[in-house]
Description:
heterodimer; A: alpha/beta; Amidase signature (AS) enzymes; 6-stranded mixed beta sheet; 5-stranded mixed beta sheet; 16 helices; B: mainly alpha; two-stranded antiparallel ribbon; 31% helix
Amino acid sequence: MSAAAPWTVAGVRDALAGKKISARELTAEFYSRIAARNLELNAFLTLSTERAYAQADLMDSKVARGEALPPLGGVPIAVKDVISTRGVRTTCGSKILETYVPPYDATAVEKLEAAGAVVLGKTNCDEFAMGSSNENSAYGPVRNPVALDRVPGGSSGGSAAAVAASLAVAALGTDTGGSIRQPGACCGIPGLMPTYGRVSRYGLIAYASSLDKIGPFAGNIADAAAVMGVIAGHDSNDSTSAAVPVENYAAEIEKPVTGLRIGVPEDYFGEGLDPEVKAKVEAGISALEKMGCRRVALSMPHTDYAIATYYIIATAEASSNLARYDGVRYGVRVPGNTLIEMYRKTRENGFGSEVKRRIMLGTYVLSAGYYDAYYLRAQKVRALIARDFAAAFEKADVIITPTAPTPAFRLGEKTSDPLQMYLADIYTVTGSLAGVPGISVPCGKTRAGLPVGMQIFGPHFSEGRVLQIARAFEKTGGFTI
Amino acid sequence: MKISRDDVLRIAELAHLELSPEEIGTYLGQLDEILTYIDKLNELDVSQTEAMAQVLFAPSGDVHPELRDDVLRPCNAAEAILAQAPDAQKPFFRVPRVISTGEVGRE
Lengths: 481, 107
C-alpha cells in the first residue's frame, strides 16, 4: 500500500482480515500522515493516540483469534471537536474550553468505538460550530487541502480537510446550518446531514439545539453509509432522538434509481449563484436523468427568507446554550472581584468575536419587547419553509440544488463582513430549518480546479434514499463530471 | 439605525459580556446591518401561521416512543465533574463572594 492510497472501509476490512496489515500498523500509518500534513492544514487539534492504539490492539486481537471484525473494525476516524470524548480534550475551537476534558463520551463516539472504529483525534472547527470558513477557530484556520490559499468551509472544516487529505478514512462533523454539507462541497468529498433526531445529540456540545445534527464525512458513498448505519438510532439519553427503525443503508444505496423524481427548485438557481457552479449542478442533474430519473420543476417560495430565519433562531438558542460558560464549572476562569465581574471577564476573554456577535444578536431577539417581532415571527416563517419542503416532496422523491453559491473562497476574503459570510449558507439552511436530511456530493470542479458540491435533500428519515441517489451519481462518474 | 449604542451596552450586560470600546463600535455597525437584513421577514404575512415549536418529525403522530420511563438511575459523576472546575472545594464550586460584607472586593 502506498502512502497516498485512499483507504476505504471495505479496504481496511479486507486488509485486516487478510492479515496484509495490522490495525496497529494502519493506525501508525495514519498518524504519520497526520504528522506530515497537519502543520500545514491545521485539521487536527488533539490526537487521541493512547485510545486509538488500545482500540487498534483490540481489533488485532480479534483477528488473531479468528473472530469476525465489527462493521468499522480498525477504520481510522476523526471526530469534530464539539463532540465529547472521555479523557480526550474537547475545546469546541474555543479558548474558553482550552483545558476541558469531558468525563463521558458522546453516544455517536461510543457507537463508533463499539463498531470497532479507531478514533484518531479531534478536528478543528469554527468556535462552537459558528462559521462557514473555519476562520473562527481560536486555534487558527484550517487550510483547504485542494487549494491551500482557500478555506475548507465550515464549521466542520477540520473534519472535511482530514478526510479530503486522506488523514482519516471518515470523520464525524456537525451540521446546524450547513456545517457538514458546505465544507464537504469546498473540499470535494461527500458529507451527510441526517434528519433531525436520526443521530443522538447526547455529548454533542450544543450550539442551536433545534438545528444541531451529527453526521459523517467519507471518501465515498458506501463509507458514508457504513458510518451512518453505526451512529444512527434512538438513544434514551436524548429525548429528541427518534424512535424510528434504522434502514439498512448498505442495501438501500445499491437499489436502481430508475423512475425516481428529482425536484429542481428554480429558487436555488437565481441571482448570486456562480455560473460555473450552476453549469456543473445542471450537468449533474442531466447525468441522473440519463440514469432514468425524472426531472420535476419546483417552486419553494420561502427559500429567500431562510437565512434571516436561521440567524434569529440559531442565535437565540446559542445565547441560551452558551450562558453556561461562566468560569464556574469547567473551562478557563478569569478572576474578578465579584461573581458578575468574573462572569464578564471570563466570557469576554474566552469567546471569539463571532461567538460574541451571535450571543448578542440572540440576546437581543429574545429580549423584552422584541420576542414577538423576531423570535416568534422566525418560528412562523420556519413553519412556512418546512411546508415548502412538505409540498415539494409530494411532487418529487428528492430535491437537488447547489450546496453553496460559490466554490471555496480565499482565506480572509469574508472575515470582515459577517453578513456576506452568512450568505455562504443560503442553500443549506433551508433543509436545516425543515429538519430533513441532505447530502453534498462532489460534482466536478471549476476551471480553476475548485470542487463544486451538489446537494440532495430527501423527506424526513429518507437517508437511504438520499444515499441511493448519491451512490448512483457516484457510479455514473458524477463526482468528476 | 435599527439599534443604538445604548442597546449594544444593554445587550452586553444581559449576556454578561464586557466589551471593549472598539468592540462596541464594531458590533453596533454589524448588528445594525444584520437586523436590517432580518427585516425582510416582515414582507411575509404570518398572521395565520402557527409557529414551529417541535422539529422532531413523528411519523406516528402524537405517540412519543422516544421518551423513556421516569426511573432513578445511579449517577456517580460528582468527582469527575468537580475535577473539571477551575476552583472546586468538594462538594462545592468556589466562586467570588456574592453577599457583600461591606468591604467590596475582598473575599
